[in-house]
């Protein structure tokens, strides 16, 4: 048997939705294929031996996903989460060498899964959990400090180009899932159907998230872009909402807040 | 073996011990890290690795190179590994004799190869390519396995020996994996150790496993059992001093407890030195021999 044939047969059996035992019980050709490929003995049949690998494949990924999406898993309960992972692996088998990436597509998959019909906010909770994980070991950067900004001559301050640190995510939600972040599980009230923008970021080695207010929700996406945003653009854009004087004050408030939170880089 | 100096006794770096090891509080000679856990862009993992590297020799031990797969080698993975190696300057790099991807799908497991001439040529060529890409020889580890392919034409140790010679790589001999596979397949673990080319062995692994009744499972969630220690003692006497690493991935004890367990390996090496037994390969009885004829393993 060629190596490629061996690997194709092995993987098809071990990563299938059903156990190898269930597959060969309904498919005589699959049973013959197993017997042709694997040696069985009195302790473990060839099928049993392949099922050792099938079990390990599923459990390892399931357990990592349950840990990474602990809140989502708690809301669903063990049985439903097990079913979700079964469906997910069948639809989206891992394709990255790092196990950390195995769950990258799970929030979007959950959004289209029947389990989301009862809890349309659940995929957004999963997305928040996933974002926190991605930010945890995202790229390092040196955020601008208040001390550095104080060194900028006043006439040049308006020309400073800010952008967000790379270790961040902006999430636009239909539900206020940040309200239930501290939820202990399915017994708690669901989040309100209240749209929110969440900023998720890492400060030093700790991950934070919080809702953005209306001004931030408008400008954080621009700050997230490769070109960032010049300070005067920020102030001008706020004028319609706050008036000229109020806009300048608000622009200073926001830049001070984001600097204190270590969210900003200064671009040349 | 050249390129793989005896670093003494080490432990695998795991998250519960990140802070203590980074602070230099591990009473141990060296640290092995799971490569993929640190092939990230930044944040705490990379910071921890830098701190650990400042205090200990570090070895990069991968689980996803998929040396045996018929898929093309993952060049992006190799680029990431090469970059991490440049930054970390590990004592060496190791991975497993297995395959873990097919058709672009990753298994995140260590699947066994058939021991055939075709597989030997295939894996040797890939190891040579990896070594060329990394600019260094690597160590390749024997895995625990739970099945034997009907079309295998040689033993695992014959395969490992031929592979090391053909690819000019080193071997990471996992003594626990030898023990687990011996039980699961009914071969003599001493025959395995005695069949491996000594000059190619650059490192030992020791670990615990679980007894599932019908088979042993390589779970790394128990202390090293007496039978594996006995096999390790045989390995030390047979091969001489080699860097030895204790793996623990679940039910992880305190750092002090883990290091104390690992240092038992150092004591065995010292004992072998004292009595001048190293390199003589005495054939003493070691538990874990042929299984099937003895009925279910309990």
Structure commentary:
The complex is a heterodimer of chains A (268) and B (298). Chain A contains 13 helices and seven strands. Chain A has 268 residues and is an alpha+beta fold. In chain A, the strands form two sheets. A three-stranded antiparallel β-sheet of chain A has the order 6-2-7. Chain A has one domain: Outer Surface Protein A, domain 3 (Alpha-Beta Complex), CATH 3.90.930.50. In chain A, helix 2 (20-26) crosses helix 3 and helix 4 packs across helix 6 (78-91). In chain B, helix 8 runs parallel beside helix 9 (226-239). Chain B is globular, with a radius of gyration of 18 Å. At the A-B interface, helix 1, strand 1 and helix 4 of A face helix 3, strand 5, strand 6, helix 5 and strand 8 of B. Strand 1 (38-39) of chain A pairs antiparallel with strand 8 (148-149) of chain B, so a sheet runs across the interface.
List the helices and strands and how they pair.
The complex is a heterodimer of chains A (268) and B (298).
Chain A: H1 3-14, H2 20-26, H3 28-37, E1 38-39, H4 46-68, H5 70-76, H6 78-91, H7 106-111, H8 115-118, H9 122-136, H10 146-150, H11 154-157, E2 161-164, E3 168-173, E4 196-203, E5 206-212, H12 214-224, E6 229-230, H13 231-260, E7 264-267
Antiparallel strand pairs in A: 2-6, 2-7, 3-4, 4-5
Helix pairs in contact in A: 2-3, 4-6, 5-6, 5-9
Chain B: E1 9-12, H1 18-22, E2 30-34, H2 35-38, H3 44-55, E3 58-61, H4 75-88, E4 93-96, E5 99-102, E6 105-111, H5 117-134, E7 139-141, E8 148-149, H6 156-167, E9 170-174, H7 175-185, H8 189-195, E10 201-207, E11 210-211, E12 216-217, H9 226-239, E13 243-247, H10 255-274
Parallel strand pairs in B: 1-2, 1-13, 2-3, 3-4, 4-7, 7-9, 9-10, 10-13
Antiparallel strand pairs in B: 5-6, 11-12
Helix pairs in contact in B: 5-6, 6-8, 8-9, 9-10
